[in-house]
């Protein structure tokens, strides 16, 4: 098992650092940083897919924790909603990781591509969506919807992963009525929990590359801090534009995966 950098060239280490920083920035704004980070990890000599997934989660939790803290200080998201969502999402992520060990992700990818296309169309055709917070539910129903979102997307993160933050953002905007900026702030808290849930599953299996994960985590932290500050400074309209770009990249990436799975 690879535990550090003994077999990794300097150019690969630099690439991992750059990818970790970029992924942290994207994740902090709208989610989807795994599109950048995971392919970079797969360049590590001898790494297995499980090791890449586990190390990716380790790096990501540094970034999501940093961006969640930054958002909390500058946006002040409602923790009465975010914390129950996060707890449910952590359990869902752990359950998804268990299923991922026995069920191929290719089974679900076509459904995810269709869902992402629907999300992109919804966001593009409704430019006013997410500009201002106008909550759709109140009282107990508000928290029930929030927890359902946390459970479903947490499960998805443990099972497949890419785009979890983006799904959280659009669910909080469309199903609950939050503005994009406030949705991103809450999404980071929940995403931090989903990363933790998957890590809890991976840790006993010895899949983590600790040296790579720590370096990746530091780069992710820097990117997450800058990304959160950028999103707060630019506002919901900026977050919406980045969101559409990331969703388009997710559609292409997962679409290619589905094509390759069918061809092979």
Describe the structure.
With 264 residues, this protein is an all-alpha fold. It has one domain (10-263). Helices cover 76% and strands 0% of the residues. It contains ten helices and no strands. The chain has helices spanning 10-29, 34-41, 49-74, 79-100, 109-125, 139-159, 164-174, 180-202, 210-234, 236-263. Helix 2 (34-41) runs antiparallel to helix 3 (49-74) and helix 4 packs parallel to helix 6 (139-159). The chain is globular. The chain starts with 9 loop residues before the first helix and ends with a helix. The model has no long low-confidence stretch (mean pLDDT 85).
Structural class: mainly alpha
Oligomer: single chain
The backbone outline, from C-alpha atoms, is globular
Helical region count? 10
Rg calc: 17 Å
Helix and strand pattern: HHHHHHHHHH
Uncertain residue ranges: none
Largest sheet: none
Features:
globular, 264 residues, mainly alpha, single chain
Topology summary:
Blueprint: H1 10-29, H2 34-41, H3 49-74, H4 79-100, H5 109-125, H6 139-159, H7 164-174, H8 180-202, H9 210-234, H10 236-263
Helix pairs in contact: 1-2, 1-3, 1-9, 2-3, 3-8, 3-9, 4-6, 4-8, 5-10, 6-7, 6-8, 7-8, 8-10
In short:
With 264 residues, this protein is an all-alpha fold. The chain has helices at residues 10-29, 34-41, 49-74, 79-100, 109-125, 139-159, 164-174, 180-202, 210-234, 236-263.
């Amino acid at each position: 098992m690879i535990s550090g950098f003994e077999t990794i060239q300097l150019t690969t280490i630099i690439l991992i650092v750059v990818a970790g920083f970029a992924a942290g920035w994207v994740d902090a704004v709208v989610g989807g940083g795994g599109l950048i980070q995971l392919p970079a990890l797969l360049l590590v000599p001898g790494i297995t897919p499980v090791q890449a997934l586990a190390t990716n989660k380790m790096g990501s939790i540094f970034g999501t924790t940093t961006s969640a803290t930054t958002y909390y200080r500058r946006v002040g998201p409602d923790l009465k909603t975010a914390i129950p969502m996060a707890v449910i999402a952590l359990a869902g992520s752990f359950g998804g990781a268990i299923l991922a060990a026995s069920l191929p992700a290719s089974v679900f990818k076509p459904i995810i591509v269709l869902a992402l296309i629907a999300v992109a169309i919804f966001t593009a055709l409704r430019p006013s969506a997410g500009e201002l917070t106008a909550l759709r539910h109140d009282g107990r129903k508000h928290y029930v919807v929030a927890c359902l979102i946390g459970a479903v997307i947490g499960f998805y993160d443990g099972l497949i992963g890419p785009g979890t933050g983006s799904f959280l953002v659009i669910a909080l905007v469309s199903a609950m009525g939050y503005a994009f900026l406030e949705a991103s702030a809450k999404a980071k808290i929940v995403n931090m929990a989903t990363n933790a849930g998957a890590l809890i599953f991976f840790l006993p299996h010895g899949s983590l590359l600790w040296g790579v994960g720590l370096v990746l985590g530091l780069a992710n932290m820097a990117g997450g801090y800058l990304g959160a500050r950028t999103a707060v400074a630019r506002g919901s309209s900026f977050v919406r534009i980045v969101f559409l770009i990331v969703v388009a990249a997710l559609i292409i990436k997962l679409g290619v995966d589905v094509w390759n799975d069918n061809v092979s």
